[in-house]
Design goal:
- The protein is built from 19 helices and eleven strands.
- The model has no long low-confidence stretch (mean pLDDT 97).
- A hairpin with a 2-residue loop joins strand 1 and strand 2.
- The strands form two sheets. A six-stranded mixed sheet has the order 1-2-11-10-8-9, with helices on both faces. Strands 4-3-5-6-7 form a five-stranded parallel sheet, sandwiched between helices.
- Among the domains are: 178 residues, Rossmann fold, CATH 3.40.50.10490; 35 residues, no CATH class.
- Helix 11 crosses helix 12, helix 13 crosses helix 17 and helix 14 runs parallel beside helix 17.
- It is of the alpha/beta class and 504 residues long.
């Protein structure tokens, strides 16, 4: 860590920590810490006023961002430079949205054109009647499509989509039970087309088709991969192999051909809107500086709580049933990206990096975990996400009560309540941020995801780590393969478990 970075952190750590009540003595607090982004699908309001950031902290965080070369690293990210230094790779998910290196944007456009042609051919009946799609992937190859399909097809889908990621056969059988094999296609999503869980599930899906009278099983398969040769070798016809660039990482891949089930469920125009919403945030992130840059502002608050207040978790509560999978999506994005212990140059990090991301859906969570958030001993910064326009056609009272509860929780966490009875006292001064969308649609969902991608990147810059590798997931997979192949002896506990399960 450079002397300049160390000095910036030392100055931040030395600043007094204001209370929220003191901060709100400033009549202009909300106007300065809340901004609205106008996007293709409607505006999104980002309110960070109920965090403990003040002008002194913001000024030093801006200096820290400069010391960490945020501008240079951001430019490198969008230029196609090899910012994933441990693997020697570019990181070009923004090019999938039309923002980035020109050659990479052009390549993404060609790949999208092929995907669009296949989507429209399926919708046009060229491949016969297709009512169902079973999308098989894991990690980023499943979480993004699952979120988008679940959020955006509540009013009906052009094609019924089922996302399967778990190697547990119960997950695949549940999808089989919901689909007619005679009208089902299988999408196999794997960057390398070697992922054990994905290929095993895909082979079982082919077996299910064959057992139910489908003669040309491979003719029902679409491959979504950065290794098209592997997919063709496995048996997929080249016309149904949808490639994407090696520079697109798994947890950032839903903008590429991994988004095929989203496009198939929504139609191409809606998928294009999804990309456009994300691209609008890309442009904001590129063109805005300092505290005006909303992903950077969020990262400042994240670092305030993780580094300066010692918070080990961050909670996300979506007060919208359509976003029920959003906390799970953010878990991978943030914890896999920034769950690191060494810096870019391989030295131990000097402080905490990513907190544990968790959350749920309001109002369910209020009756489950909010007791700890209001009166527990663990300080937890919280993000609330909601939409002004409801997603239902019921009495408007439903949505009014939902939003009232969302806003009330933030107000209660901040204000607290004094009581002569200690069991009924609320300490207050507990932080939250609120992201309020005009409505949930493909463009705003794309914008929400892109915002969090760039927020995660800024946090990685502050920590001086590589947010784009994930070696931490490999060791357990290697040992699982050793168990599968046999001949390796493990610790006594693992050996006993293997014996009890009949695996030895």
């Amino acid at each position: 860590m450079s002397d300049t970075v160390t000095k910036a952190w030392s100055e931040l750590e030395a600043l007094p920590k204001p209370t929220l009540a003191a901060l709100f003595a400033d009549a202009d607090r909300v106007s300065r810490y809340c901004d609205v982004l106008d996007l293709p699908g409607g505006a999104i309001r980002f309110d960070w006023s109920k965090t403990h950031l003040d002008d002194a902290h913001v000024q030093l965080f801006e200096a820290l961002a400069q010391a960490c070369d945020l501008d240079g690293r951001r430019a490198a990210l969008f230029s196609g430079a090899k910012v994933n230094v441990t693997e020697g790779r570019s990181v070009e998910h923004t090019a999938q949205r039309g923002v980035g290196n020109e050659a990479s944007v052009d390549e993404a456009g060609r790949n999208h054109a092929k995907m669009r042609a296949l989507v429209e051919a399926i919708h046009g009946g060229v491949l016969g009647e297709v009512k169902h799609l079973i999308h098989i992937g894991i990690g980023g190859s499943a979480l993004g499509p699952d979120l988008a399909v679940d959020a955006l097809t509540r009013d009906g889908a052009m094609t019924d989509v089922h996302i399967v990621s778990n190697i547990d056969g119960c997950a695949l059988e549940e999808a089989f039970a919901a689909c007619d094999p005679a009208t089902t296609m299988i999408a196999v999503a794997s960057k390398t087309f070697t992922t054990t869980e994905t290929i095993t599930n895909a082979e079982s899906a082919l077996g299910w088709l064959a057992e139910n009278g489908v003669s040309d099983t491979y003719g029902r398969v679409v491959a979504l991969t950065a290794a098209p040769g592997k997919a063709i070798e496995w048996g997929v016809d080249e016309t149904r192999v949808l490639p994407f660039a090696e520079s697109v990482g798994g947890r950032y891949s839903l903008w590429s051909s991994i988004g095929f089930p989203i496009a198939l469920a929504l139609g191409w125009d809606e998928f294009a809107s999804f990309l456009d919403g994300a691209a609008a945030v890309d442009r904001h992130f590129l063109e805005s500086e300092g505290f005006a840059n909303l992903p950077l502002r969020a990262a400042m608050a994240d670092q305030f709580y993780t580094r300066l207040r010692g918070c080990q978790t961050r909670a996300v509560f979506a007060y919208d049933e359509r976003l029920r999978l959003f906390p799970s999506y953010l878990q991978q994005l943030e914890m896999e990206s920034n769950g690191k212990r060494v810096t870019l140059d391989g030295h131990p990090v000097s402080g905490p990096t990513a907190p544990i991301t968790w959350g749920g859906v309001g109002t369910d969570a209020q009756h489950a975990v909010f007791q700890l958030l209001h009166q527990g001993t663990v300080l937890t910064p919280i993000d609330f996400i909601a939409a002004i326009q409801s997603g239902d056609t019921l009495d408007p009272a439903h949505h009014r009560i939902l939003l009232s509860n969302c806003f009330a929780q933030g107000a209660a966490l901040m204000a607290g309540k004094q009581s002569d009875d200690p069991a009924r006292a609320y300490p207050g001064d507990r932080p939250s941020a609120t992201i309020l969308c005009d409505e949930i649609n493909p463009a705003t969902l794309g914008a929400l995801i892109a915002f969090h991608e760039h927020r995660t990147f800024c946090n990685g810059v502050f920590c001086q780590i590589n947010s784009f590798d994930q070696f931490g997931v490999e060791l357990g997979k290697e040992i699982a393969k050793q168990i599968e192949h046999g001949g390796t002896t493990f610790d006594a506990s693992t050996e006993a478990l293997l014996t009890a399960a009949g695996i030895n």
